[in-house]
Every structure is written in structure tokens, then in C-alpha cells.
Design goal:
The chain has 7 helices and 2 strands, in the order E-E-H-H-H-H-H-H-H. The chain has helices at residues 17-24, 28-36, 50-66, 70-101, 107-127, 132-143, 147-150, and strands at residues 7-9, 12-14. A two-stranded antiparallel sheet has the order 1-2. The longest helix is centred in the middle third of the chain and has 32 residues, at 70-101. The chain is rod-shaped. It starts with 6 loop residues before the first strand and ends with a helix. The protein folds into 3 domains: 7-66, Multidrug-efflux Transporter Regulator, Chain: A, Domain 2 (Orthogonal Bundle); 68-104; 105-154, no CATH class. The protein has 154 residues and is mainly α.
């Protein structure tokens, strides 16, 4: 096997890509990627200075280790969203079960029932022998009622 040539570019040592990659314990492809993004610098000869390349790689790795890991933040957000969805499904299932047992009623059904009660009540008041002023006062009081006035809280 032929040993790669090591060149001296002036006073600088210049190694070929495969030997520099072996020094850093990375693939030649990764070394080329690091050069492409500007982490390590190629010499004018197209080779790498082993000391400068090693220092640049160490600095790059230190900087990455010091930065918070974006992927862990993404994973935490994903887990939080999955937990929210699971809770939402559990809540929806609990409501469906309560409706099936008869301990929960849709708000729309309650409102329709109250509406029908008030229509019947209004018609009874209008058909009664009360004076018009008494009818108006009673119906105005009825119109001013709020939902919270109609629903008993425990």
C-alpha cells in the first residue's frame, strides 16, 4: 500500500484529505463537509494543515457542546404536544361516557329545553288575566335573566 505524500507548503505541513480525516477520526466525506461550511480551511494546494484542522475541529465541537441541543428542545415540544393530545382524547372519552350514563347532557339540549319552557311561560302570561303593566314587568324580568341565574351551582 502506497503511503500518502506529506507536503510542506513553506513552513506548514500539508496532509491529504484521507490522512487528515483519519487524524480526526472522521470520514473523508465529513471532513469535506466541514471544509464546505467553513469549519476547517483547505490550504491552497487543496490539502489540510493537520494542526490547524485539528484545532478548528476541536473548537467546532466545543461550541456545539456548549449550545443547547435544538433536537432535545424539539423532542420536548413533541412530547408536550403528544401529552396534550392524549389528555384531550381522554377528556373527550370521559364526556362521551358521562353522556352514555346519563350524567351529562349537551348544553344545546339544555338551552332548547329552557327556550321551550320560556315560550310556554310567556304564552301563559300573555293569556292570563294580569294587567298589561304586570305582564310587561314580569316578561321584562324574564328577559333580563342570565344563564348563570338559571343554572344552580353546587
Amino acid at each position: 500500500m502506497k503511503k500518502p505524500q506529506i507536503e510542506r507548503n513553506g513552513s506548514e505541513l500539508a496532509w491529504p484529505t484521507d490522512r487528515t480525516a483519519a487524524l480526526l477520526d472522521i470520514s473523508t466525506r465529513r471532513l469535506q463537509q466541514l471544509a464546505a461550511i467553513g469549519v476547517v480551511q483547505k490550504l491552497p494546494s487543496g490539502r489540510f494543515g493537520p494542526f490547524q484542522t485539528a484545532n478548528a475541529d476541536i473548537s467546532f465541537l466545543r461550541d456545539r457542546a456548549a449550545q443547547p441541543d435544538d433536537s432535545s428542545a424539539v423532542q420536548a415540544a413533541l412530547r408536550a404536544e403528544q401529552l396534550r393530545e392524549t389528555r384531550e382524547r381522554a377528556y373527550k372519552l370521559a364526556l362521551e361516557n358521562a353522556k352514555a350514563r346519563g350524567s351529562q347532557i349537551d348544553a344545546e339540549v339544555v338551552y332548547k329545553t329552557y327556550e321551550n319552557v320560556f315560550v310556554v311561560f310567556r304564552n301563559k302570561v300573555l293569556a292570563s288575566s294580569m294587567t298589561d303593566q304586570e305582564k310587561d314587568e314580569l316578561l321584562n324580568d324574564l328577559y333580563r335573566l342570565k344563564t348563570r341565574d338559571l343554572i344552580a351551582t353546587e
